[in-house]
Amino acid sequence: MSTADQSVESASGYKKSPFASFLLELVQTLVLAVVLYVLIDTVIARVRVENISMRPTLEPGEFLLVNKMAYKLNAMSRGDIIVFHYSPTEDYIKRLIGLPGDVVKVTNGKVSVNDFMLDEPYIAAPPAYNGVWEVPEGAVFVLGDNRNQSSDSHAWGFVTMDKIVGKALAIYWPLKNAHVLSHPNIVKAAVNEGP
């Protein structure tokens, strides 16, 4: 068999060797992989849960997918689980409780926002602290679901909007814990109980 018989004819009519075709395909595949990675990384972050502050919702060692575009396209909602930059080297995961302008109160183990009691079936235990916080413009108030074992807004203040990475979407690892995270409507309208 001659060399001409072993070559591959290209679309332009000239013949390429099988090795040259392989290299071209390899380069195209690598370029496509890099482009897809950059596109996905622009929209989705992967975050590991490091501590117990969000128990029982999240456990240490779980990996989350975070939608980095969520708040560029949609409004924030109370009850969302968000990831934010706590410091230049550390990200935190907490539940969004108060939006700009809200008044958050914690009294006798109950959390209220703008005088509406929150419905929080996801917390580990009622908070053992009291306080009132008025959320400033350009910031949010966050709490861990493990209220008494969480470093959060009740201890150090508010999270500014520019620090927010995105909204947690799902646990993807370990596989036995994999599921989509719920973001309940935690503020219930006041009930008129009447006389």
How would you portray this structure in words?
InterPro entries: LexA/Signal_pep-like_sf, Pept_S26A_signal_pept_1, Pept_S26A_signal_pept_1_CS, Pept_S26A_signal_pept_1_Lys-AS, Peptidase_S26. By secondary structure, the chain is an alpha+beta fold. It has a domain at 69-167: Umud Fragment, subunit A (Ribbon). It has helices spanning 3-6, 18-43, 70-73, 153-156, and strands spanning 8-9, 15-16, 44-48, 63-67, 81-87, 90-98, 103-107, 110-113, 116-117, 131-134, 139-143, 159-160, 164-173, 179-180. Strands 3, 4, 5, 6, 11, 12, 13 and 14 form an eight-stranded antiparallel sheet that branches. A hairpin with a 2-residue loop joins β8 (110-113) and β9 (116-117). The longest helix is centred in the first third of the chain and has 26 residues, at 18-43. It is elongated and about 80 Å long. 23% of the residues are buried. Mean pLDDT is 86; it is low at 1-8 and 189-195.
